[in-house]
């Protein structure tokens, strides 16, 4: 509280026309605010200075205004006009202060200002606008308008500065409007690495939720695998509720899931892959929050096999500040319950140091306990042994609990643990003894008959032990009084003597013991029991009086006693299930890394992590450019697309990975073979289309999604199947080449303008309308479906139509015909594929095939080489694996004499060269097949190729070293 | 996200509050004070507290609590990292992050906080950017300001905010262009009672001090980058290049910053520079115990171990220590039961030894807990992992900078588990002793010497 005179003094200073005095006054006022002292009565005097020329005074006035405007709304309005004027000149800071003045009357003004700022030239101003959005979200009436602004800012081109803030605004204002994200999804993924740290956290969390609604569970086939290899199941035996749905013991459900999985093999959406790939480098971030965000993303979204990568990064965070450790350990504890294997290699990182704060120690203990299994239990127990000698008693108690849990979980060490705990019973520290008793009680419940001597030993301890432990012992003796018939009555005698001085919890157990003994050994204990019941009758605690009355009625037979007393023995001495010692960190339902998870209670504003959808929603909603909405079986085959993606690369920052969803490992996009192959396959499939038309009609009802996927896959099989090149493919290629080059040059120029690639693509493709796409589809489907006789004519038409792709507008003559044709033809084709799969199931075991890059276009001076394992027998030598190489010459000059030389191989490996390619003209592509015998190893085969000598190496991934074997279904089953 | 921030000192006074949204009464901190009372030690205050209407997230740095109040779901690490960032920034600005310094610069701190968060969401957290907006106080500037009425508030929009490299301010100019890198490695280890390594790893960090004009693009390469097991980088490092070529390529921030941290974990790579031979025993009855500690060099790569400091947390029953050190001084804090022995430089020819008797509270039972022994030390001009910087190249600028690399190894959490010998007789039999470097002649000699010079030990043994 300030005396008025001091305020006068400040007011005087503020009224003076010397800036230095004003500044001094403002500094003192702000210091008051900082100390939490009330300076609100200076408001009028301060607000006058809002128009002060001195920037430092002005800034401090802003600080004051933001703090007190809410309390003095009327006076605050006086300053608004100044800010409105300021919006023209110092846009960002004026908007910031204006929006921070929480006065509802000015909401419309702010709305206008935000809208204007959202389309400002400067990204900094746009960022400020994004920040202002949640501030304005005071009344829900504004929501619709705000969403508009958010939508606009999400579509921002140089988003890396704005992205974090706008996603933050999105999360606060309209987290449910997931449809706003679709079009920006890929852009956000690609920009992620360039966004500032705080924005990264927000975006990753948002994308986690998004992915959960849009993609399929990558572990959906897990049930299938687990069915096959039961070894896997026992390994993860203790994590029974691994994946609630799949891990059910319910066989039926499993079979159903398996059938489902068989029907549509899981193929990861390329966008899903894109997200995983682009977040992975952020595990190396210096910011723990970012690392945690990526970790939870992987945990919730990645296939099981890939989740492991996060373990190392999380372990690294354990070296950070203790608060960070605290949060990370809590999350690790939850993760270890679900996926123990992930952290097992890092077991030692969770060893406890005497200098750790107690809460960290207990969390580490939790993790160690979760990690314990048959193989490492001896190491862990040895560690625990040292912990028991710690000075920190809370920690010792927790260690004993942990030993108990290890003992219940791992049968082999149960006896060892029990013996160890019994030894602790003679410890001098009360707390240690008490805790041991409680744990022993739980352990004994599992196999009481073997351990009557331990019960005897514990009975001796009853006299001098803490109440909780004493209660436990009494319960044990009562429960297993048949195993210790001599001691039990004696214990009751002693307890009866001290009954009045015991704690309530002990009294209840004495009553319990008495009742049980009365039922089993009434001869010896009848009087004792009655004595105890009488004492309890007059106890101060009503619980105890109540219990005594209840027990008396139940066990002492009187003429009035009801039917219940007959069952008294059954009631009291029923077999009780052993308690399950469970980790308190089983918090499945909360998103990891969230506040709610940490508190194990839903915090305000927590967004549930949705379950995976049964069937993936339409992936095409994320397509920004029209081209990508065309399935890759059309003219613009994957090859061409890849080209485009490559060109994009340099526009992203250097840290950007191989961009674009098309290159993902298990996506269906990347895997189609060469141009020629796909082209010829097209004609092949076309020839079959007519006979299958009938079949297709009946299948039309099926989900379109499924069909498309299956279709694509089948198509690829066909593509691989046919190797010879049809005559038409050459011509097509040429046409495509020219188009490709054009698109390249287009995107390059865009790149110079520094706009991001995604948008550049969309710009270049804007000219292409949806109708155009249909045209293409129609043309392709139409062309091959006609007999081969008309080939030449058709080709011409095709080419002209293809050229349309690059024209600004579709030609009006073609459109109606094609749109009419398109729908029926597309379904026809889809039908075809389905029937196809029935006809030729044995061509390749799995439809996906991945192309690997051998030589990049840039490092190869224009020559790019890719290879894929065609999964076909290599003619000349059965032991060799056929490797199909695609050469593409994008340089200006012809490449001559492509061949291999200086092959450096691991011992045992052999290579059959591909025939030398004498000439590869500029802009052309060609394929060659070579054979490599990898000797079943996954060592890389290294060799040099091309006359200019580029050193390359081929490394086979596991699973590509196979040779086709024909066997019947029965044989196959037998082999399994 | 973050609603308010309270800075609270060790004794529980709130000396600064800042609200980014509506004002929250400081009485909300009462929940924190309650938890603080309960926790006894400040390290044990739970970082996250739940109150009926708010959540309190706090960190403890330099005897200060930074307490953030939040109302809705937010990743807790987000808040914790931000609070540490605040502390780091204050440290950057004022060279220290203590109550006194903050109180002296209250207005500047308040302004910094104002810039760091907008509506609870981080706005400008890069030190380089902040310093452009609010200039750190220097004596010269404050003198000039008082004379001319100038200000320490930047009047331009920070350029870093607008560019793709937000961590570097524009228009940097130096007459002496220099780039220094400190490779600092800390050994974290747990040695068991026999001296063998239970757990050891190396935490490395490369601290940089770069004062270069313009927009230099640096490339730092290592002789043996494969050593690095797990790395994390300052955002300026191009991760892609690291992945493909194992070089650090970056446009550095101006001034001091942490370029990268790394981790070397494979046990065989971690050299343990010193060994500890210790023997602490208490009589079964009676009120005294004995202590004998010797430290010697193990794998020091020919460098000298300096700044050796041994800290032992004694059992509660130990009342006082009557010891003699052959080198350095020791202190025993009666209140905290911590014995600190400041050894200094380790001389391999004459190993430092600390021995003597401990008096135990009479009547108290023989202590059972194991005390732990923590070692502090440093070795100049050595990165214990063997990491070596190969070269530093600069692109994008024409001048020739002055470059320098310094190596330093120090003990991180270097802990030895001590174990009381069960009986006094056992400790007198040389074979009964286990020490890490059996077979090293100097130790045997020392052992013998020890017995000779300490007749009272024999007496006890006979007793």
Automatic annotation (TrEMBL), chain A:
Compositional bias of kind Basic and acidic residues: 637-651, 706-717, 788-800
Pfam families: Adaptin_N, AP3B1_C
Keywords: Membrane, Protein transport, Transport
GO cellular component: AP-3 adaptor complex; endomembrane system
Membrane topology classification: Peripheral membrane protein
InterPro entries reported in the protein's UniProt record: AP3_beta (IPR026740), AP3B_C (IPR029390), AP_beta (IPR026739), ARM-like (IPR011989), ARM-type_fold (IPR016024), Clathrin/coatomer_adapt-like_N (IPR002553)
Comp. bias (Acidic residues): 240-250, 690-705, 746-770
Subcellular location(s) of the protein: Endomembrane system
GO BP field: intracellular protein transport; vesicle-mediated transport
Domain AP-3 complex subunit beta C-terminal: 794-939
Segments for region (Disordered): 226-255, 609-814
SUPFAM superfamilies given in the database record: ARM repeat
Compositionally biased spans, kind Low complexity: 663-689
Protein family (similarity comment): Belongs to the adaptor complexes large subunit family.
Protein name: AP-3 complex subunit beta
Native source organism of the sequence: Hippocampus comes
Automatic annotation (TrEMBL), chain B:
Topology within the bilayer: Peripheral membrane protein
Localization per Swiss-Prot or TrEMBL: Golgi apparatus; Cytoplasmic vesicle membrane
CDD domains membership: AP3_Mu_N
Main location group: Golgi
CC terms in the record's Gene Ontology section: clathrin adaptor complex; cytoplasmic vesicle membrane; Golgi apparatus
Domain MHD: 176-417
Keyword RNA-binding: no
Keyword Membrane: yes
Keywords recorded for this protein, A-Z: Cytoplasmic vesicle, Golgi apparatus, Membrane, Protein transport, Transport
GO terms, biological process: intracellular protein transport; vesicle-mediated transport
UniProt function note: Part of the AP-3 complex, an adaptor-related complex which is not clathrin-associated. The complex is associated with the Golgi region as well as more peripheral structures. It facilitates the budding of vesicles from the Golgi membrane and may be directly involved in trafficking to lysosomes.
Family (UniProt): Belongs to the adaptor complexes medium subunit family.
Full protein name: AP-3 complex subunit mu-1
Organism: Hippocampus comes (Tiger tail seahorse)
